[in-house]
Amino acid sequence: MGLVESWGGNAIGWFFAHLIEAFYNFFYAIFNPGLWLSWVPTINGPMETEQKEALMRFIYYGASVELFFVVLVAFLIVTTIGVINNRFMWGCVRGLEGFANVVGRVAAWAGLLMVLQQIVIIFMQRVFAVAEISIGFGATFSKDVSWWSEELKFYNAMIVCLCAAYTFVQGGHVRVDLVYSAISFRAKRVIDMLGSMIFMVPGALVIWLYGWFFMWRHLVVPNPSASDTLDRLLTKARALRWNIETIGFSPNGFNAYFLFKVLLVVFTLMILLQAVAFFYRSYLEWNEGPESEGKYLDKDVLGDPTAETVAKIH
Known about the structure:
Blueprint: H1 3-7, H2 11-31, H3 34-37, H4 49-61, H5 65-84, H6 86-107, H7 109-126, E1 132-135, E2 141-144, H8 145-169, H9 185-216, E3 220-221, H10 230-236, E4 241-242, H11 258-288, H12 305-313
Antiparallel strand pairs: 1-2, 3-4
Transmembrane segments: 12-31, 58-85, 106-124, 190-213, 258-280
Pfam families: DctQ
Subunit structure: The complex comprises the extracytoplasmic solute receptor protein and the two transmembrane proteins.
């Protein structure tokens, strides 16, 4: 549209120009998906020039100012509707918290899988002295014992990255309380709103900016950089090819370390969504008063009075 170039002489003009252009950018991307998604069918395969350029556009816009303002506009629209209609905002809270709970509860089973796999590794290695473990019915998946041992780190990463938002919903993160407990209910909610916008969102955005390009540098070559312009990335697209990281720390060790980079991006996205959910919940509880505290909150029932008390302390 050219508004940023026309109005971008000062910070205010730059900001509002990007806000206005966000509508155009969103609908342009929706109605021209081939310009940034045509690479999807060719994952880890050969690509035509158009697909290479589409992938470079996807990489560039995935951590761009344009995407930030599209998301910001969407947030402002949803928030405005929610302020007018609190029932709609409660629906957003329930949806976002429900998503965090479902993902977290499923990912938490990786802890059990990790323990069982460790037991099998020790048993097979020490008792039967095998060098390889196979799993499957009919078609088997066979890897060296060291591969299965190193894979345990991936389960740890899954629990950390996919359960962080879930733990936040459940109130499981440890807090350092200096003044929070001594202030009024509504003052607490104001602090919660400010905390979600001043600390959670900026922190997650910084991780996203680093994590996004960190992930792609382990998936394609030539390596994209956060400092590259779109034109420079499109120039690099001529030599673009998939180069998914499959190098382990040991010769026969776990060779899918690119998944850790993917988890970092997923973790950041879930934290951003949870920050929005927490902001909305805090606003609604501030607006509706103490009787709305914990409204629609889907917390786990621990079934142990001591554990319940500890959870409340956190």
